[in-house]
Amino acid sequence: MDKKNGLTYAEAGVDIDAGNALVETIKPFVRATRRKGADAEIGGFGGLFDLKAAGFHDPILVAANDGVGSKVKLAIDSSRHETIGIDLVAMCVNDLIVQGAEPLFFLDYYATGKLEPATAADVIKGIAEGCREAGCALIGGETAEMPGLYAGKDYDLAGFAVGAVERGNLLPRADMVPGDMLLGLPSSGLHSNGFSLVRRVLTLKGLDLGMVAPFAPDTTLGMALLAPTRIYVRPLLQTLATAPGIKALAHITGGGFQDNLPRVLPASLDLQIDLSRIYVPAVFGWLAREGGIEESEMLRTFNCGIGMVLVVAAGSIETVEDALRQAGEKPVRLGSVVESAPASARVQFQGRLSL
Hints:
Elements (H helix, E strand, L loop, with lengths): L15 H16 L27 E8 L4 H8 L5 H14 L4 E11 L4 H18 L2 E9 L9 E12 L14 E6 L8 H11 L6 E2 L2 E5 H5 L7 H10 L3 E6 L4 H5 L8 E6 L7 H10 L3 H7 L4 E7 L4 H10 L5 E8 L7 E4 L5
Parallel strand pairs: 2-3, 9-12
Antiparallel strand pairs: 1-4, 2-4, 5-10, 5-11, 6-7, 8-10, 9-11
């Protein structure tokens, strides 16, 4: 074939030079996530981590991966990509800390139909910010340009996090008993769950992401809905190190209390939660009213104001509360552990949400 008429990868829609330029752009963001055990340099075929240099003696590795779901579509439609990377990290590292594990390193996967270097750099800058907040190193990732698979400016994200916990500190503990108490830690809003329902409400009501948010008049609707997921790692690591008595942690994501709390419970125990104790951010009440969403559906779809739940020995509750406050948290007493009864719900609600 005449080389002048031969096809190129660029003509097929993939720009290798743009990808290489992106790597150079994000290197400073990545280097800012350095920590003991990792130099946070990228460009090789794999990332390295030294557990011994990180100070572990008899560790168990804990791994988690996740995405951001259709919240990504709101970032695309709003042309605001600075915080969606924080969500990506949060959804992974919050799943590590619930097992008592300290997040060590993170890798990302960014896929798009047409690589827009500025957009990708904003996303990865947010990922690096989330890693700094969680104390883990961003040691690698992958950018995939796949024309024909993603339309227009669409992209998707996946994250992979690995942490470690000393063998004797793994959660949940096996000694949960009736009378243990529940503490909740406030969420920053929707976090990264339920956005297919959120987008359905926006479509049915004909709402524009650039309009003033009805529940937060100092910002736009798009920006309010994109508030990033809270990262609970540092305050929980600090509390676990200073206040004995925490028996389990549960990250409240899709499925709400009903689906996430039983994951840390033995079969012989249930939980009772007083919904009236929860401060419900205004975004949830607005969504419930605009969408005509029942309380039971809100509880099954969203965190409704509580992003993390702790199971704590009754005799240690005040010590743990004090430690959490010292770490900057505002714990809420939600309820208690009870004996399981035949045909009872694993999570039993009392009171009502203030929607």
